[in-house]
Specification:
The complex is a heterodimer of chains A (487) and B (473).
Chain A lengths: L11 H10 L1 H33 L6 H6 L2 E2 L3 E2 L5 E7 L5 E4 L7 H4 L8 H5 L1 H4 L6 H10 L3 E2 L2 E4 L3 H11 L4 E7 L4 E8 L7 H10 L9 H4 L9 H11 L7 E4 L2 E4 L2 E4 L7 E4 H6 L3 H10 L2 H10 L25 H8 L9 H12 L3 E3 L4 E5 L5 E4 L4 E4 L3 H17 L12 E9 L7 E9 L7 E9 L7 H12 L4
Parallel strand pairs in A: 1-5, 2-6
Antiparallel strand pairs in A: 2-3, 3-4, 6-14, 7-8, 7-19, 9-12, 10-11, 13-16, 14-15, 17-18, 18-19
Helix pairs in contact in A: 8-18, 13-15
Chain B lengths: L1 H28 L3 H29 L3 H25 L5 H21 L1 H27 L7 H21 L7 E3 L2 E3 L1 H19 L3 H20 L3 H19 L2 H21 L1 H11 L5 H17 L22 H9 L1 H24 L3 H25 L17 H58 L6
Helix pairs in contact in B: 1-2, 1-14, 2-3, 2-4, 3-4, 3-5, 4-5, 4-14, 5-16, 6-7, 6-8, 7-8, 7-9, 7-15, 7-16, 8-9, 9-10, 9-15, 10-11, 11-12, 12-13, 13-14, 14-15, 14-16, 15-16
The chains are: A alpha+beta (487), B mainly alpha (473).
Chain lengths: 487, 473
């Protein structure tokens, strides 16, 4: 480089000629530089936004290196209660403790024999220390470990305990969410386990295939939805038939099309009813009748837009719900699907998301479990803010569904919920899941304070056999009561 | 205490390297000779500072302290000798290219010493030999004016070497692409790249009429197809791109470029359908975790880059050894993990600066043959950098090429050294060319002055004779 750029180019004519001669070289250079700018942008994007997914991957062994230098941080409830902490003995051995034991088992997870729940998802922040740098230097000099950051969750201890106790010894799940923000306030799955003793009980827990206590039923359990699915059938009906308010049907206790006969629950005859009453009474015959009129392809696309057959936005691992009806489905499938039987499967968490969208004027907020990460002194490192995930339905549709769901409480199958000093809109369900007709799953999904919804509660109880303690509605009521301070 | 030094050194290294990188580009702006010289000297100083600090950390954190110390001293001597010999033997060589070469070598030494000191020592020897050899190349380029007359020799030699690799790959089931000669293993395709550039340059210098373009394209296609058949995808893509770019620049016809790109896309689709190993690479690129058996290497690489973050873990503080054969193709990930994402981005910019200088040289030479050589080698270099870094960051499917100057591997080092030396040779030629031009201009000016004077004299004579008409009639 000896100043040749300008050599011999004083003549503008010559300069132009030279530029012309080198035009292709310049093109190639600029294109190459552009290519590298894109590459650099990609790497920057990766470091900024994508790297956490990779760092937190359970395949990443690097996380364990941090554990040699950092004492694992705490997991806290939104009220500051400790859900998980590390105690260091005098000899330096660390034990991870879970003060609430089984109550938060599936959400908080565990940190030995692998990782699960938030212990797995938030492993990286828990093992990262954003302590004040002078403190870190001091620790370095004394050869002491730094303290990892604390994860403050959106979990509400009061609601979680209420849901946990209400579910009792039943198998099932409860999900509580705040529809206006997407915060997950409580999530219970039973049977459960004690994360404090996971190492000792490991083989027993994993070999128990009858009860599958390790499975988080709230997000990973897939159940036939039964009548709670009528929310989606009603939505599709509204979309296909703008005169849905004029719909009437005379229920005689059953409906037959071809060789398929659908019975109303307990053979009840509902008589003359419109859409609202059909929904409030959860009339199978009427909904089978509606189902016959629906366009299968359009129903499929509505359900897929409601996240069936899709990965759910979920801060923990979740299963895809399943919806199979389409344009070529026959009568039987159409009738069964409309009332929530057939091949449709859904997770309690997914039902909570759909209910949240209804409660929030059709908009689903991105669900989250971690409110913020803060260092050991309480200084906030990162703060999660509510964000819109997707508009699932129009606000008119949401309002119409809310009106239907209000009727369920005011004059329908969930009338028990109308006695509190708070208003509730919701939908019940009783889903048959085997040839044994005496047993079914009991569902409830709904939200409280209809005008300005506070919380969404979704409950499923497996194997309801007529025993009152195994019904979903009283469990939901306990959670609402706990929220409004009437325990 | 050591922890603090490691922590602080991390930031100092990034700052020093940032200044170095800034100077790589600011030097293009300054026309003043003295200012440039001072910038370029500062760059060498920064290189030595980075080298020193990194090895201080390695000395403190590694077990085999005496070896690290001696190794550091040998590297420093090699660098000092290289710089001083180059600047005395070839005062006209490009100091920026020389500086960047030294900087890249230093980064390679730091990472390799940290990863595997035995390999680093072997690399050191290979670099020493390569630099010694490369000292002779500029003078050869200057002497051998007839390089452009051997186009078929280049093509035949290249194809023969590639066929040998293909035979080897077939015998070993695609596992090996290199020959072992005693302790040294040679990967011929690294050297064929250079022969290929010479072939294309001499052929397209010869003529760019349609017939010759067709013949040249066919011969280039033979190269590419042999590489594809021997599962050297990275090589195939590099050869293809280099040819396309050289063809476009030589013929000045964008239509050839467009046609080539179309043909390339078609070939890519075909390769995807035909070869399982291509499909695997694409599947891994889409989701390394879904194909964990194959995606393991890329997955580990992403963990390394992600975990390192912007500032890195610090030397010896990460786990780059988790990446299989990290010393070869995936060394960029190790750099990003321990020296930091920012450092890694500056590294990319230094490579781009080399390329800009190469193309700058290409643009300033007048001889079309040499222009094409500089263009071809520059494209070859920068595209290899792109394939390597794009591959390990999952920007594009991984193709298994080395990062020039930094990855471990004798053939890669040797061929890169030769490429850089050829470019230096061309740079010196250009300086000669300029001087020649200046000299000719001066001559021309003198001749014109002379003639003007003679003319004036003649005219005076004529005027005088006109004064006295009739005398010559």
């Amino acid at each position: 480089m000896t100043g040749r750029a300008a050599t011999g180019d004083h003549n503008p004519e010559k300069k132009r000629k030279k530029r012309n001669r080198n035009k292709e070289f310049a093109v190639v250079t600029y294109v190459t530089i552009a290519l590298f700018i894109v590459l650099i942008g990609y790497i920057g994007y990766f470091d900024l936004y994508r790297s956490n997914d990779f760092i937190n991957s359970p395949y990443n062994d690097r996380q364990d290196v941090y554990a040699d230098k950092v004492t694992r941080g705490e997991i806290l409830a939104s009220g500051g209660q400790v859900l998980a902490k590390t105690e260091t003995a005098d000899d330096g051995t660390e034990t991870r403790q879970y003060p609430y034991a089984n109550v938060f088992a599936h959400v908080v997870g565990y940190d030995s024999n692998g990782k699960a729940g938030l212990e797995s998802e938030e492993n990286f922040p828990l093992l990262t220390s954003n302590a004040f740098f002078l403190e870190k230097i001091q620790n370095d000099l004394q050869n002491k470990k730094n303290t990892g950051d604390n994860v403050v969750t959106t979990m509400n201890v009061n609601l979680q305990q209420a849901a946990y106790e209400a579910l009792g010894s039943n198998k099932g799940a409860v999900v509580v969410m705040e529809p206006s923000t997407g915060k997950i306030l409580a999530m219970v799955s039973k049977p459960d386990y004690d994360p404090n003793t996971i190492s000792d009980s490991w083989s027993g827990l994993n070999s128990d295939t009858d009860n599958t206590p390790m499975l988080n039923r709230a997000t990973k359990g897939l159940y036939p939805p039964g009548s709670v699915f009528k929310i989606l059938t009603a939505l599709e009906f509204m979309r296909e038939d703008s005169n849905y308010t004029d719909y009437t049907y005379n229920c005689t206790g059953s409906i037959t099309q071809g060789e398929t006969t659908i019975q109303c629950f307990d053979g009840t005859v509902h008589g003359e009813e419109d859409l609202t009453l059909s929904f409030a009474h959860s009339c199978n015959s009427s909904f089978a009748n509606i189902g016959l009129s629906l366009n299968g392809d359009s129903f499929l696309s509505t359900c897929e837009s409601m996240l069936f057959n899709k990965d759910l936005p979920c801060p923990l691992g979740s299963s895809q719900s399943q919806f199979k009806e389409n344009g070529s489905s026959g009568y039987a499938v159409k009738m069964m699907t409309a009332m929530g039987q057939g091949e449709t499967l859904v997770s309690p968490y997914h039902m909570a998301l759909i209910t949240s969208a209804v409660a929030n004027g059709g908009t689903l907020m991105t669900p989250y479990l971690v409110d913020r990460i803060q260092n050991d002194a309480g200084t906030v490192v990162t703060q999660n803010e509510p964000a819109v995930y997707k508009k699932l339905m129009t606000s008119e549709e949401a309002a119409s569904l809310t009106q239907l769901m209000s009727a369920v409480v005011s004059e329908g199958t969930a009338v028990e919920l109308s006695y509190g000093d708070y208003s509730v809109a919701g939908k019940t369900g009783t889903a048959e899941y085997s040839s044994d007709k005496t047993k079914s799953h009991s569902w409830f999904t709904g939200f409280s304070n209809i005008d300005n919804p506070d919380i969404v509660v979704t409950v499923i109880v497996e194997g309801y056999d007529g025993n009152r303690n195994a019904r979903a509605i009283p469990i939901a009521k306990s959670v609402f009561d706990a929220y409004y301070g009437n325990r | 205490m050591t922890n603090i030094i490691v922590e602080i050194s991390k930031y100092i290294l990034i700052i020093l390297f940032a200044i170095y990188t800034y100077k790589c580009f600011s030097v293009f702006r300054d026309i003043d000779y003295l200012k440039r010289r001072s910038i370029l000297r500062t760059q060498s100083g920064l290189t030595f500072a980075i080298h020193f600090i990194a090895f201080l950390v390695l000395y403190l954190t590694m077990d085999d302290k005496p070896t690290v110390l001696i190794f550091y001293a040998s590297q420093a001597v090699l660098l000092i000798l290289t710089i001083s010999l180059y600047t005395t033997l070839y005062p006209k060589a490009s100091r920026l290219v020389l500086n960047n070469m030294c900087m890249l070598i230093v980064i390679g030494f730091i990472m390799l010493t940290r990863l595997n000191i035995d390999k680093a020592i072997r690399q050191f020897m290979m670099i020493t030999v390569s630099i010694i050899i490369s000292f002779f190349i500029p003078v050869l380029i200057r002497r051998m004016k007839s390089l452009r007359n051997f186009k078929y020799a280049y093509a035949i030699a290249g194809i023969v070497f590639l066929l040998a690799v293909l035979a080897l790959a077939t015998v070993t089931g695609g596992a090996k692409l290199s020959f072992s000669l005693g302790p040294v293993s040679i990967q011929p395709s690294e050297f064929v790249k250079i022969l290929f550039v010479f072939y294309v340059a001499s052929s397209l210098w010869d003529s760019v009429d349609f017939k010759n373009v067709l013949i040249t394209s066919c011969i280039a296609a033979v190269h590419v197809l042999i590489l594809v058949a021997s599962t050297d995808l990275g090589g195939a893509v590099i050869f293809f791109t280099v040819y396309l770019i050289m063809l476009y620049v030589a013929t000045r016809k964008p239509a050839y470029l467009a046609g080539g790109i179309l043909a390339g896309c078609g070939a890519a689709v075909l390769a995807y359908k035909l070869f399982r190993h291509v499909r695997i690479r694409v599947a891994v690129w889409k989701d390394p975790f879904a194909n964990w058996d194959y995606g393991y290497q890329v997955g580990q690489s992403l963990f390394a880059i992600g975990t390192g973050g912007w500032f890195g873990m610090g030397l010896m503080q990460g786990m780059p050894d988790k990446i299989p054969v990290v010393t070869n193709d995936f060394i960029f990930s190790a750099i990003a993990e321990e020296l930091g994402g920012i450092f890694a981005l500056f590294l990319i910019l230094v490579c781009v600066s080399c390329y800009v200088m190469f193309l700058n040289i290409a643009m300033q030479i007048h001889d079309q043959f040499y222009k094409l050589i500089a263009l071809g080698l520059g494209t070859c270099y920068i595209f290899q950098v792109f394939l390597n870094i794009g591959g390990v960051t999952k920007f594009i499917p991984s193709t298994g090429v080395t990062l020039p100057w930094i990855s471990y591997g004798g053939s890669s080092i040797m061929s890169t050294a030769i490429m850089f030396a050829i470019i230096q040779g061309l740079y010196i030629l250009r300086e000669d060319e300029d001087e020649e031009l200046e000299r000719r201009k001066a001559l021309e000016r003198r001749r014109q002055q002379h003639e003007a004077r003679a003319q004036r004299r003649r005219e005076t004579v004529r005027t005088r004779s006109n004064d006295r008409p009739g005398r010559y009639r």
